Amino acid sequence: MTDQERSTDSFHSYLTPTARLFSDCTRLRLLIYCWLPPVLMALLPSEAWAQDTPDYYRQNCMNCHTIGGGKLTGPDLKNVSERKDAEWLIRFMQNPKAVVDSGDPYAAKLVEESRGVVMPVAPGMSRYRAEQILKLIEEESKLEESQFRGMQISNKPFAEADRFAGHELFVGRRRLENGGTACIACHSMYDIAALGGGRLGPDLTLVYERLQGRNSLAAWLMAPATETMQPIFKDHPLTGDEIHSLTAYFAASAQHRESDASVSRITFLLLGLAIAAAIIFAFDAIWKGRFSGVRSPLVETVNAKQHRTEEAHAEQQQPPSRSELLGVSDQSPPRGDS
Amino acid sequence: MQVRSQVSMVFHLDKCIGCHTCSVACKNVWTDRKGAEYMWWNNVETKPGTGYPTKWEDQDKYQGGWKSNGNGKLDIRSTSKTKIVPNIFHNPHMPSLDDYYEPWTYDYQNLFNAPEGPDQPTAEPISMIDGEKIDVQAGPNWDDDLGGSPIYAENDPNLEGLTEQQRLQLSSVERLVFFYLPRICNHCLNPCCVASCPSGALYKRGEDGIVLIDQQKCRAWRSCVAACPYKKTYFNWFTGKSEKCILCFPRLETGQAPACFHSCVGRIRYLGVLLYDAEKLEEIAKLPDDELVEGQRSMILDPHDPAVIAEAKRNGIPDGVIESAQDSPVYRFVMDWKIALPPHIEYRTLPMLFYVPPMSPVQASKPEDTITHNSENLFHDIDDSRVPMKFLANLFGAGHEGVVRYALAKQKAVRWHRRAETVGDIDRETADRMLREADCTREEADEIYKLTSLCTFEDRFVIPPMHREQAIEMMKEPHEHREEAGFGFVGGPRRGL
Q1: Cβ contact A181:A224 at 8 Å
Q2: What CATH number is attached to the domain comprising A57?
Q3: I want to staple B180 with a disulfide (CB 3.0 to 4.6 A). Which of A110, B16, B63, B447 is the partner?
């Protein structure tokens, strides 16, 4: 093999198989890639998105709205397109706050009815999404019994046992059946001592009032819609019993109005400082010898000892000679000079 | 039998003149770099003395080496999986810079640039670490030739077990004695530094047993620094990597003796291959202290034994290495003559650098006005030597005097024998009796004499063919390797991952 051949050969060996195909069939490649994107664009949305609109609704809308199940936090959406035109609805879905702020009277009325709660924008909301949802609501409105009528929550009265079970679930002493995270991880409550609960989500002492009672709260718990909670509970939903217990607990806690987060926040801060200081002192105690080497302490102790003996000898006037210690008579010079 | 080869060493302490040429050669070749100023991969210590770093032999302080944990296992003293977490911010057993010394140079520019004045300008010492003027308190051989004895010599950890009188004798003028202990990495068979590394950066080279630190893998844990009982790994504060003696492997690979061996003025150093049985390693390392020296000898295999040769070949040891092992001067000192002993084998790392213990003058006393000697046989009465037997036993016999006495007796017998041969003031019979008592023959005595006194370069250094090409072939295409290797650092050691 000549040098020339070897160099070409090694050049080819550096290319990956795909790269080699590229360099060989450039024209063919161009042909393929020209028509691929439009086809993909035509295929993807209709195929994939049509399927997940009900799922999207279930995750983002159902906790405040029913279709034919009555009002929760938000209004019942049955036949909503008869009440308002499609264009307005789509605009509202995409940015409810802007519509409310624009002074739209209908939007103002909605806010009033839901006691000041402005509808949040659902994650991933787009014009296309909004259209699909409207279509879904229209279809579901025609049905006698919509799948989004809302879960039938038991109406049995809250017992003391329910409240206790709710508390246990909240603080995580009892695990959530489907493996969801305990509430305390992100939320706090009036009756949780010193360190309080998590600070990521709001204090839930008065949540029962905020969400206007049992039905809406239960609906929320069925499928929490905020960006933080949704991914956590999407695959680990609460069971009916758990929702019942938690609602009972929240209903009871709402009686205690003195939810004072600031107190526990200060205790939290002070406790944190105290623990940090304790850890630093503990480290200091554990490694208290960390700055002492071997050589300098050795030199210091020997020097100190010598100093002491010299002083002692000065007092005695007659130092015991080394030869006495050795048991022979010699006149060796004092230590240190040798 | 699992035969492996190890490049091993013998230092003949009776010949060391303490000139530090080895240290300087090593410094110039390897550690004359930023961050390595304080390192002496080779250093020469005066014994009795505390050495470098100060009191390195005091394992209560430094916690180096292995320790038998009672249930038949060996533990690293300095670290373990449980110890590493509480000590993650600070390893309490690490020598500090003060225990080595703060490296310094002199402000030579001042000699030229100083303004005119009534006095001669001086070159003041300045730290090589921060460039500030320093008051030099210690150096790598501060206690050289018994300098600072009341502090350093009297606190030599090897003085343990000596009587108060023996200790005093060591420092009284007419009995004063010292000898030199040159030290490099022992390239141990059971290296504690390798075992302690959390990053797996240290390894023992398969073909020659040289212990190395991979500068790419080192993550600055410094576990090796704490673990090595001989304190022969050092942390480079500039590159953030640990470093150690590499037994000049680039020189060995080209058939040259390591720099410190090559430059040795007293010709005290011997280098050669030993074949050993790696299967016995664990069992030997766990033996009680008094059996360790013999145990290590039992691991070393006879390179002339056909069974050993066959097994070595089966294990891939090249013929050239086996031949080299047959000529090894180290084998003669350690195995044939048994006069070379491992230093501090009680650390259980099984060092592969052996020392021939030094002879010393007999004790003297001054009963009246003249100094007389306690013994008539000046230089030859080993139990009346100025260096107490116990001291040498602490250094080379794990505290047990038997092996040291044997080695010294044989050296003494060789001298009597040669004196009878050449000077003739001693009659043959006495010399032969000496030889018999020392378990030595005339022929053996002549051989010891020859390899000790009349040794040439080739006698002292029997360097095996390293066959690096074979080792490289296993890892890499040799052509590729040739293109990547060269002068200087190909990707030098740098801080971080």
Answers
A1: no
A2: 1.10.760.10
A3: B16
Whole-number mean pLDDT of chain A? 75
Note down the domain range covering A174: 160-262
For residue range B338-361, list pLDDT tens digits in order. Answer: 999 999 999 999 999 999 999 987
Size of interface A-B (CB pairs under 8 A): 76
Q: Residue B30 above 60 pLDDT?
A: yes
Question: Which single residue is written with the structure tokens 């008051």?
Answer: B135
Best mutation site among B88, B94, B96 for testing chain A: the one with the most A CBs within 10 Å?
B96
Contact B172 A332 (CB under 8 A): yes
Q: Are B124 and B106 in contact (CB under 8 A)?
A: yes
A289 is a domain residue: no
Contact A296 B149 (CB under 8 A): no
**CATH number assigned to the domain covering B1-100+141-337+350-357+462-497:** 3.30.70.20
The reply to whether residue B55 touches residue A326, judged by beta carbons under 8 angstroms, is: no
To the nearest whole number, what is the mean pLDDT of chain B?
90
State in Å, rounded, how far the first CA of chain A is from the last one: 79
Q: Model confidence over A278-329: pLDDT tens digits?
A: 999 998 888 787 777 899 899 999 999 988 988 888 877 655 555 555 555 4
Question: Does A273 reside within a domain?
Answer: no
Looking at this protein, which amino acid is placed at residue A216? S
What amino acid is encoded at B47 in this protein? K
- Phi/psi at A203 (nearest 5 deg)? -65, 135
In angstroms, the Cα distances linking B241 to B128, B194, B225, B238, B297 are 19, 15, 11, 8, 35
Which residue in chain B is spatially nearest to A306 when comparing CA positions?
A: B150
Q: Collect all residues of chain B within an 8 Å Cβ-Cβ radius of residue A336.
A: 149-150
Split into its structural domains, chain A has a count of: 2
In which element (H, E) is residue B269 found?
strand B269-277
The proportion of chain B whose per-residue pLDDT surpasses 90, expressed as a percent, equals 73
| Residue A322 to residue B151, Cβ atoms within 8 A | no
* d(C-alpha B204, C-alpha B201), whole Å: 10
- A185 and A99: one domain? no
The answer to whether residue B169 neighbours chain A at the CB level (below 8 Å) is: yes
DSSP B350-388: --SEEEEPPP-PBPEE-SSSS-EES-SSTTT-GGGBSS-
Contacts of B163 in chain A (CB under 8 A): none
Domain boundary among A207, A233, A262: A262
Amino acid of residue B57: E
Domain spans, chain B = 1-100+141-337+350-357+462-497
Put simply, the answer to whether A322 touches B165 (Cβ < 8 Å) is no
Whether the CB of A284 is below 8 Å from some CB of chain B: the reply is: no
Is the confidence metric ipTM above 0.85 for this complex?
no
Question: B410 is written with which tokens?
Answer: 């044989």
Q: Is A17 on the interface with B (CB under 8 A)?
A: no
User: Would you list the DSSP string of B110-121?
Assistant: HHHHPPP-SS--
Residue in chain B lying closest to A291 (CA): B96
**pLDDT at residue B249 is higher than 90:** yes
